[in-house]
Specification:
Elements lengths: L3 E7 L4 H13 L4 E5 L22 E4 L12 E5 L6 E2 L8 E6 L8 H6 L2 E4 L8 H16 L36
Helix pairs in contact: 1-3
Amino acid sequence: MRGYFAVGAEGLSKRMNLGTLMRSAHAFGANFFFTVDAAQNLRKAPASDTSKSPGHLPLFNWDSVDTMDLPRGCQLVGIELTEDSIDLPSFGHPLQAAYVLGPERGSLSDEMLSRCDHVVKIPTKFCINVAMAGAIVMYDRHRALGRYADRSTTAGGPKSERPRHVSGGPVMRTGRKVPGT
């Protein structure tokens, strides 16, 4: 897949959720993980992160929304149930994205929401566990930006393989092909 992504959470307090979210981020190929205003005992990967993700992706701990230092061009995507949130199945994932989830039994802060470029919601009947929500969002990104055959309109697998991407020769800005290619 092109681009990069990160996953993080604001105000986490439970070690198991952090570990499970970090393990899922590692499994889905995240490029880094972060916390914002996390409890002091959550400044390192807990035992529930059985993949030992900090050995494979950086972990950043920011004390506040103001101290967050995302890479230039990275779009912040909040995962939150708000009136104007975009339903996840309809969301176009940015190539460079950092997904942030709220705390257990809480919501993203107003400061975090105002910093987000996009706010997305998972269309469920009620709130779900933060680690589960993160895994759903990462799966959706992987499904949307990965090179998979189109989903079948009937039960079962796709009827045809997705065609391989073929690189063409250089194209000038005018749209004309460069001679000799």
